[in-house]
Amino acid sequence: MIFHQSMRPFSAISFDLDDTLYDNRPYIIAAEQAQIQFLHTQFPKVKGWHTGKWRALKTHCINAQPELAHDATLARWQTLYQGLLLAGYDTSTAMQGADAGLQCFVEHRSNFTVSAEVIDILQKLGQYVPLIGITNGNVDSQRIGLSKVMKFVLNASVDARVKPYPDMFEYSYLQLGIPPKQLLHVGDSYAADVQGARLNGAQVAWLNPAVGRTRQPYGQGCLPQVVIEDIAELIQLCEGFAVR
Q1: Burial degree of 116 (CB within 10 A; 0-12, 13-18, 19+)
Q2: What does the angle CA 39 – CA 43 – CA 45 come to, to the nearest 5 degrees?
Q3: Which one of 16, 71, 167, 188 is the catalytic residue?
Q4: Would you call 159 a catalytic residue per the annotation?
Q5: How far apart, in whole angstroms, are the C-alpha atoms of residue 116 and residue 142?
Q6: What pLDDT is attached to residue 116?
Q7: What are the start-end ranges of the E strands in the chain?
């Protein structure tokens, strides 16, 4: 544990989800593979389309409609729709295909549960302060087992922009009934989590390395209050700074 600034008392902890509580990569890869297999079977005109081509189209869609960057689900639907149109399907078929392809992805995207070890740590932390989730992604927190340990989870959307934008932080303060300085945010992204928390008044524990990754260099902007290597270290922080 490395401290860069003095910690203040906190009365709630917010967690990023992907790559903070679990390694997100295998689940995204599996979901994308299932989606592509579904599309190849049901819509043969895109049979030659590989993951890289779909990702490039997604980038194009977001560049054309920047608001899609704030909603992973909507961005995926739009990508599927545009891809099917480009492949030669009519509008109705492309819409139906986008709906079905998205449903396939969503089913597989949250087809896992957070490890028992992590749930145990979260339960211990929950004995000190309320826990919530703030994620830029679209994982189903209830399906992966977080509803039993978190008061609520916020997913980014067009109406709640991704971190580091203030939207989800401000909503959290309101729902928890606390001032910004009493929230400790925990996340792996220096740009989204560290800067998002610091620029919006919260304290932050930077998880470095992220789950399943190697240690990353510091980024641009504000320093975190503290750097941790494992969320279990948060128990020690709660013992010293949590306000019950």
Answers
A1: exposed
A2: 115
A3: 16
A4: no
A5: 15
A6: 98
A7: 2-3, 12-15, 131-135, 153-155, 183-187, 203-207, 226-228
CA distance linking residue 93 with residue 39, whole number of Å: 12
In this predicted structure, what is the pLDDT of residue 56? 96
Which one-letter DSSP state was computed for residue 161?
Answer: P
- Cα(137)–Cα(159) distance, integer angstroms: 14
Give kind and range of the element (H or E) at residue 44.
none
pLDDT at 156: 96
Q: If 0-12 CB within 10 Å is exposed, 13-18 middle and 19+ buried, where does residue 196 land? A: buried
Closest CA to 17 of 156, 124, 175: 156
Residue 142, SS3? coil
Q: What is the mean pLDDT of each run of 10 residues along the chain (244 residues)?
A: 96 98 97 95 94 94 96 96 96 97 96 98 98 97 97 96 97 97 98 98 98 95 97 97 90
Instruction: State the Cα–Cα distance between residues 102 and 214, nearest whole angstrom.
Output: 31
